[in-house]
Amino acid sequence: MMALVGIRATIDKSEIMWSWVYAQKGDTGFPKFVPMGFGVDFTRKLEQLIDREVIRFARTAESQSKRRSK
Question: CA end-to-end span of the chain, whole Å?
């Protein structure tokens, strides 16, 4: 995991816009990880935030898809 974090940090610091061949422009393919060194409460709070945003995104995408298919 630390190697992936290092790769992402190196790409972010560079001036190069790097993406995988079939990825969206600017998507490095190396996700940010939730830090675990600040205590379990902090980690859980970030995980809950991520979960809420994923659910919100999915609901919006589903709603838009249903509207398009009508």
Answer: 44
Give the separation between CA 65 and CA 70, rounded to whole angstroms. 9
Structure tokens at 8: 């992402």
> Using one digit for the tens of pLDDT, what is the confidence trace for 16-56?
888 888 888 888 888 888 888 999 999 999 999 999 999 99
Place of tokens 């990825």: 23
Task: Give the containing element (helix H, strand E) for 4.
Answer: helix 2-13
CA 48 vs CA 1, 32, 37, 45: distances in Å? 21, 15, 17, 5
One-character DSSP codes across 20-58? -TTSPTT--S-------TT-HHHHHHHHHHHHHHHHHHH
